Amino acid sequence: MKYLLHVSIGPVQEFIAEARRINDLRLGSALLSCITQYAILPFDKNAEMLIPAREVIAESSSSDYPCIPNRFLAIVSDEESLDTLVKASQEGCRAFWSKVNDEVKATLTEQGIFDSRMSTDMSLWEQWDCQVKELWQYVWVAIPISDANIANNYQTKVKEVQKALEQRKITRTFLQWEGASTIKCTQCGKREIIGTKEFWGKAGEGTDGRIRRGDRLCAVCLIKRFIKGETLEMKEPKKVESTADIAVAPYKALLGKIGEDRQESLLQCANSLLVLLGRSKVKSIDQIPGMLFFEDQLKPTRLIREFCRWDEGNKKRENEIETPAKALSQVLSDINKKYGMKLCKYYVLFGMDGDDMGKFMSEVTGKEQQGQRSHALGRLAQEMPEKVREWKWIPVYSGGDDFLAMGPLEDAVDVALKVRTKFGEILEGRTASAGMVITHYRNSLGKSLEMLRENVEKAKENDKKDSLALTVWVGSGTESTTRLKWDKTDAILPKLLQWFEEDKLSTAFAYELPAEIDAFYRGDNQGELSFDKDIFCIEVERLFVRHLKHEKDKKDKELRKEAETIFEKMAAVAKPRRVPGAFDARQNFRELLRIISFLARQQAPRKTDAQG
Asked: Per DSSP, what are the bridge partners of residue 151?
């Protein structure tokens, strides 16, 4: 008797959400993908793989980003093979995880973070092993399936095994947590720290900034921090030290176009400061740490806290650092004034998940169609990262129908629309819902990721899904979130932002419209809201014309016609919804206008004359 096997490897969301630094996020995602890949290997050689497609497994080994989904489906020939392969799969996961642990332990010992005395302290390693041994959740179910089932009843069997897996995950077993009443990890906040408080006071020496002052980490978070890309069989991508590096990427690109004398002056000032901060000199503007481009960070106390983490005598060096910090600040200020450049303090997190993909992968006529859909998902997993790199984003995870990336704010809406279009091209006829968080570079990455996950869920709550939930989280802590169908996003945001950037339309248009919103709504005795679309469009057009900056644009019939189409879409967003449990459309529209106002302020100036 053959068996249809379904396996899930976790945890996923909580493991990713624990990241507090970009490197933790990237390598944590890669680690999860690698664990799944090792779990798949025995079945790939000795069973019939259905999901993911075999080419996805093969191509993933040569990739520099994780692209193996955390679930897989296979047909096994008999019960004996099932038991053998499941054990081999679980052992493959354990062996790889053991290898990762041993390599990180060796790295920590070699670098003197765990000295020879501590490396033989059994209580330390026992605590480490206790934290890591039950991290991964290997959940599997299998149901009998005959050749007749495969030929005539395949869809029913696939649905049956999916349902069984979900039930098994609810009833999963786990060992009792053997914790202690000691300091918790500053990254995940759940597990206890490895070592003592005194030990962590010195632990950052020689770690090249991977451990900062105040860090107190558990074994799992230490692994994320110190695991090497080669251990995960990844190509080492271009290093991105912080969220500040992502935010300033477009600004650095513009600096590469200014006069060579000013580039040289900027590089000299940055290197003078880096040497005093204990860092190596850099050879190009692109290698300057992103933090050094922000004026509010060029203060001696902040620079010492960020770069000189482990020398208690650094207080005495403030006077030395102050002069080159001021010189760098002045050079940047002069460049910005001369070339009309603007430095953005925000970056973007973007996550997308296919709509109703469980049905898509289970409602199939047979193995052939299953294979076609699995192949399409594999193609999506492979191609999406390459595309977003072309669009100046950094892929973090690409599992087919789900995708995670980050990038600069520049052109963020356009890139999100391109990602959605690419999804629809490869999975023809399928839709996807997405979350986007535009966040200040100093805001918590962990909280930003949590917002992103919530936004993906909010987008799926929209009628028929196929939506984007967009949040702006400014440095002051204020949040604004709006939900839009993709077609409304495409119709409203890019063109409005283009007009702001091209100096056709004053940003005051986006400020004044919120004050007019309530005039378009009427409430009845039952508290139901009605919306006057005609008055809305008339008033919005009046404000639009009023805030067009040039007389020629006010008389431009094509521009007015194009604007009317946008106002129709805006009216559709503002119209109250009659769907039970629907969100407040009026508040949603207010939030949309706040976000448009924010994006308008960030749009320009951001271009420069390369010959200046």
From this structure: none
Distance CA 499, CA 67 (A): 38
- Which residues, other chains included, contact 508 with Cβ-Cβ below 8 Å and sequence gap of 6+? 547
| Tens-place pLDDT, residues 49-75 | 998 877 666 665 555 666 788 889 999
3-state percent helix, strand, coil for the chain, nearest multiple of 5: 55, 15, 30
Domains of the chain: 2-226 (3.30.70.2220), 249-339 (no CATH), 345-477 (3.30.70.270), 485-612 (no CATH)
What lies within 8 Å, CB to CB, of 78 at 6+ separation is 1, 2, 3
Find the DSSP H helices in 235-354: 243-247, 249-255, 260-276, 300-307, 318-339
CA dihedral 100, 102, 108, 109 (to 10 degrees): -170
Contact 223, 101 (CB under 8 A): yes
Per-residue pLDDT, 116? 46
pTM for this predicted structure: 0.88
- State how far the Cα of 495 lies from the Cα of 359, in Å rounded to an integer: 36
In 355-491, at which residue ranges do the beta strands (DSSP E only) sit? 394-398, 402-408, 432-440, 467-473, 479-485
Q: How many CB atoms lie within 10 A of CB 474?
A: 16
Question: Which sign does the torsion angle of CA 473, 479, 480, 486 carry?
Answer: positive
CA dist., res. 542 & res. 539, Å (int): 5
DSSP β-ladder status, 48-51 and 2-10: unpaired
Query: DSSP 3-state assignment of 74?
Result: strand
What does the block give as tokens for 89? 């799969």
| 3-state SS string for 468-535 | EEEEEECCCCCEEEEEEEHHHHHHHHHHHHHHHHCCCECCHHHHHHHHHHHHHEEECCCCCEEECHHH
471: how many CB neighbours lie within 10 A of its CB?
22
Name the pairing type of β-strands 48-51 and 479-485.
unpaired
Give the helix/strand (H/E) hosting 543.
helix 533-546
Tell me the two tokens of residue 20: 């507090």
Q: Which of 46, 35, 45 is nearest to 7 (CA)?
A: 35
Q: Are strands 48-51 and 432-440 parallel, antiparallel or unpaired?
A: unpaired
The C-alpha atoms of residue 11 and residue 16 are separated, in whole angstroms, by 9
User: What confidence score (pLDDT) does residue 124 get?
Assistant: 74
Q: Tell me how far apart the alpha carbons of residues 567 and 533 are, in angstroms, rounded to a whole number.
A: 10
Q: Which residues of the chain have pLDDT under 50?
A: 116-120, 237, 604-605, 608-612
d(CA 593, CA 597): 6
Q: Is the distance from CB of 437 to CB of 403 less than 8 angstroms?
A: no
- The residue length of the chain stands at 612
